[in-house]
Amino acid sequence: MKVTVVKRATPAAIAVLRQATALFPKRNKASDGLLPSAAHVKASPNSDHNTGLAVDLTHDPKNGIDCDVIFDELKKDERVAYLIFKGKIWSRDRKAEGERKYSGSNPHNKHLHISIRSSHSNDTSNWFGFIDKQPNVLSQTKAKLSKKPKKKDIPSPKEA
After folding, report:
1. How distant, in Å, are the alpha carbons of 3, 71, 148, 152 from that of 112?
2. Paired sense of beta strands 80-85 and 54-58, if any
3. What is the pLDDT of residues 25-65, one digit of tens each?
4. Which residue among 27, 72, 153, 156 is buried most deeply as judged by most CB within 10 Å?
5. CB–CB of 70/55 below 8 Å?
6. H helices of 9-111, where?
7. What is the pLDDT of residue 151?
8. Domain boundaries, the chain
């Protein structure tokens, strides 16, 4: 079975990591992830990472990214399809059941897995509005997402 993997994560998934870093520049990024490795594709052919609709955010409470808090807060965000962290899964489709035991091979102890609903794939609005420390994250993120101006052609010394 051939699995299709997109070449670029969705803007919403990219925004999660960029906004987290804008808020907490010294945060650990060791378990951050957007697109899957070949091993991940083989182990999880139906992963939302394959579609660019998932993001892994490193748990680093010492430097501001407390995924225990973020897990609870993102349940309220309409962009979220499901969350996995510390052996628990919560999904919008089954929210009446609350958190359930996650039975996948990786319990996600070092990072929070966020799967984004496809209808919100381009939504780069603030993912961390519940955090008190709020620099102008949206401005910083939009600036990073905008295209850089092209360099002007500078004639070589021979042409000048």
Report:
1. 24, 7, 31, 43
2. unpaired
3. 999 999 999 998 888 888 888 889 999 999 999 999 999 99
4. 27
5. no
6. 11-23, 38-43, 67-74
7. 47
8. 11-145
Residue with tokens 């999904």: 91
At 132, the pLDDT band (50, 70, 90 cuts) reads confident
Percent of residues, the chain, with pLDDT higher than 90: 69
Q: Is 82 helix (H, G, I), strand (E, B) or coil?
A: strand
Whether 130 has a pLDDT exceeding 50, the answer reads yes
- The SS3 assignment for 60 reads strand
Contacts of 137 (CB under 8 A, 6+ apart): 19, 22, 23, 126, 128
CA 39 – CA 79 distance, rounded (Å): 27
Q: What is the pLDDT of residues 11-22, one digit of tens each?
A: 999 999 999 999
**CA 137 to chain CA centroid, nearest Å:** 15
Determine the Cα–Cα distance for residues 61 and 138; give it in Å rounded to an integer. Answer: 22
- DSSP class of residue 75 equals T
pTM above 0.85, yes or no: no
Q: Are 85 and 68 in contact (CB under 8 A)?
A: yes
Of 96, 105, 131, which is closest to residue 16 (Cα–Cα)? 131
DSSP E strands: which ranges in the chain?
Answer: 54-58, 80-85, 88-91, 100-101, 111-116
3-state secondary structure of 56: strand
